[in-house]
Amino acid sequence: MTRRVAVATAQPYEVVVGHHVLAELEGLVPADAVRVAIIHASPVLGFAEGLARHLPGREVLLIEAPDGEQAKTVEFLAHCWDQLGMHGFTRSDLVIGVGGGATTDLAGFVAASWLRGVRFVTVPTTVLGMVDAAVGGKTGINVAAGKNLVGAFHEPIGVLCDLATLADLPARELRGGLAEVIKCGFIADPTILTDVEAAPERALDPADDLLADLVTRGIAVKAATVAADLRETGADGSIGREALNYGHTLGHAIERHERYTIRHGESISVGMVFVAELAHRAGKIDADLLARHRATLGLVGLPTSYDGASFEDLLNGMRLDKKTRGSQLRFVVLDGLANPQILAGPSEDLLRECWDAVRG
Fold this sequence. Notes:
Blueprint (H helix, E strand, L loop, with lengths): L2 E5 L5 E6 L6 H4 L6 E7 L3 H8 L6 E7 L8 H13 L7 E6 L1 H13 L5 E6 L2 H7 L4 E6 L2 E8 L4 E5 L8 H17 L2 H9 L1 H4 L5 H20 L19 H10 L6 H18 L5 H13 L11 H8 L11 E5 L5 E5 L3 H11 L2
């Protein structure tokens, strides 16, 4: 069954979720796009070549990116620009990002920055890419100071999530992607949590309809959130798009400390336990909801503790978080299930207590 999620931003687009949906690609490509650059992760070269065959009559340029976060560098970004320039890409042409979240982040920023913005399509091939990076228009690269600190808001004109690509995904990648799905359950759609808790083995089965439903629910949470607050301004006084950063403040600090050798979902899993500890100590959630974080994440094999860095190193990393204002750290926490809010300026002693609780 093919599922469709509308992203109702100022320039609306659709996310198509299903098995073997690539036939829809040709209909997404604008008629005036003579050239199409497919920026793809190295493990999905064959898939990218198959994608090119759905673009008859177009000049297709394949650009192979390093796998994972190693693609999100200034050096590789410049290489992509050079390739587009050498092949004469104009403002009417198209960029397609194929792979995991890191590749679609990079491809989106290539599209956002080339000629001050050309159209692009995302074709995520991981659970993480489908639920998180491919939707919402956040694009970017990493620099020495931290993750995703350089980027732009640049929405795709369409997203194709071909669930058939998940069949060959390593189990660790599936688990990592489910961290973002479970995050959506805690911040907005508790049905996700009950479904995972009832059948964690089905949630990890690429052929099971439950995983397809979980992916679609996660996309729907993100679509609704970004439609209300695309640029993360919280203009109506609500938390807005910042809610999607649940678990990410500590998570990104862990990733940076580990030089991106740890999976994004694994670090975010630990980050969610950390902010659950913070919310519990601040009197916002009870012990049962705190325990539910460890239990639900643990059911799908995600880590809930980490002891690979000092508190001081991670605190310095968290100070570079995009939610920080001036010298004040700000965390997304829950004030009850599915009710995210910002907790600003917790004391260093409180943060250290929470860190001690997740060190294992």
